[in-house]
Amino acid sequence: MRVLHFIPDLEVVSSSNLMNYKLALLKDMAESTDVHVLTCNAGNVSLGRAVVYGCSSVGTFVKRGKKRIGKVLDKLKPEVVHIHASWNYTAYCLFDSCLRRKIPTVVTLDRSLEPWHVLHHYWLCKLPKLVLFQRRMLKDAVALHAVCFQEKSSLQRFAWHPRLKPKHCINDRVVEIDAYNVANGTDLKDMVRGLLRLYRKVADSSPFPQMTEEERLVEDKLMMLGVNASRLDMGLISGEVVSQMRSFDEKSWRKVLLHSADEGILDYVKSGMVKVGIQPSINPYSIERFSLRKDDNDTRSKVARNSKLLSLKKDGALSGFELELCECLVSVILMVRRSCVHRSDFVKLYEMLRFNEYDEDLVEEKINKLGLGGEAASLFQIMKERYGLGEGFMFAEPSDGRETEKLRLKLSKSDIQ
Questions:
Q1: Residue 68: Cβ within 10 Å count
Q2: Taking a C-beta distance cutoff of 8 angstroms, is the pair 3, 82 a contact?
Q3: Which of 216, 292, 365, 409 is least surrounded, with the fewest CB atoms within 10 Å of its CB?
Q4: Contact at 8 Å (CB) between 39 and 10?
């Protein structure tokens, strides 16, 4: 696993009785993990096998400094970024760059959000920083690392002001891994193991951004092989792709299966794996993960009550399978609009189009009357590219224009495909 740590000033850390545990931590971690460190001041501090990169704290206030951070991230492509800082604008620039690249982050605050720290220069310093960047870091970090039980309790009660009681925890993904230099019964090895488990959990919680194009292609092929099962032959997958699958290591299969489980297509992918003679060795549901995707049940229920769907059911012009197909297609289009669609919804639509006879003219006329003809054409282009749906099974010509490109981008940003 490749991990990038950010520590603003290594010399300050080395001279601090509270935080100098980090140096031994990084040295030990680098013995078993690919560790990189980004800092504004490395000084003469040695971190063993860890590779150190420099950046300018002043430079981050201009475009060039932010580009430097982006170049480090693009070069290293870390699986997790661990930020050891608070009230620090450079740390926020790194955090923001990670969000843009969908790199999961862990933030260690080293008790700097305890009430007595927050109240110090609160109105002139801490409150403006909270408004500008600190609160966003706390809220959107995949995990907050607390170095003791007291800090964990404080983070769970953190609000705009220490004397205010929050209605909700700003981030419920607070993990306590005691600093070995202050906690009894904890040594350096325990802390390293605890952090490595946390990094694994963080990385597993967001598999799609880490997947390569080859892994995404394999997920597509296995999914469609499982969907078609006995209804179509093995011609769906070329020998080259099968060879590529057999070359995948456990890390690649872990990402593919985790994402498949998130998208509701795991059974299809596993069925496809069995078809090509690959036995799934990982159970995604047994892997410890954070729940990062927002619960979309409410949004999907609103889609079910949409006026376009209700008008379909009241309209006597459609019945039987044509009505079911229109309902499914309209639902997928509306769920795409509201960013609550899953790959399983596309699979359901594929099966309806691919393996059933229906009146194409009647369905096309109804979809056009609902004003969804353009979106249906873009959707068919996606179905053609990613699901192998032939044009002979579509009631309209697929469109590969600007709207289709926006749809591809939206589905990618939503970690769907």
A1: 17
A2: yes
A3: 409
A4: yes
- Read off the pTM: 0.91
Residues 50, 52: Cα–Cα separation, whole Å: 6
Judged by DSSP in three states, 4 sits in strand
Residue pair 254/211 in contact (Cβ under 8 Å)? The answer is: no
Going by the DSSP 8-state scheme, the letter that residue 102 receives in this structure is T
Residue with tokens 């680098």: 30
DSSP state of 288: -
Q: d(Cα 136, Cα 99) in Å, to the nearest integer? A: 11
- The encoded tokens of residue 128 equal 């403006």
- Triad 386, 390, 391: Cα angle to 5°: 115
Size of the chain, expressed as the number of residues it contains: 417
Look up residue 327 and give its amino acid: E
Task: Say how many C-beta atoms besides its own lie within 10 A of residue 372's C-beta.
Answer: 18
Q: What is the dihedral of CA 150, 154, 156, 161, to 10 degrees?
A: 180
pLDDT at 66: 87
Our CA dihedral for 193, 198, 202, 204, rounded to 10 degrees, sits at 50
Closest CA to 380 of 364, 358, 366, 359: 364
Name the strand (E) or helix (H) holding 145.
Answer: strand 143-146
- Spatial CB neighbours of 366, under 8 Å, sequence gap ≥ 6: 312, 315, 317, 318, 322, 326
**What confidence tier does 9 reach under pLDDT thresholds 50, 70, 90?**
very high
**pLDDT of 227-273, one tens digit each?**
987 676 555 566 767 777 888 889 999 999 999 999 999 999 999 88
CB neighbourhood size of 358 (10 A): 18
**338 close to 297: Cβ distance less than 8 angstroms:** no
**Cβ contacts of residue 187 below 8 Å, gap of 6+?**
180
Structure tokens at 20: 């100098």
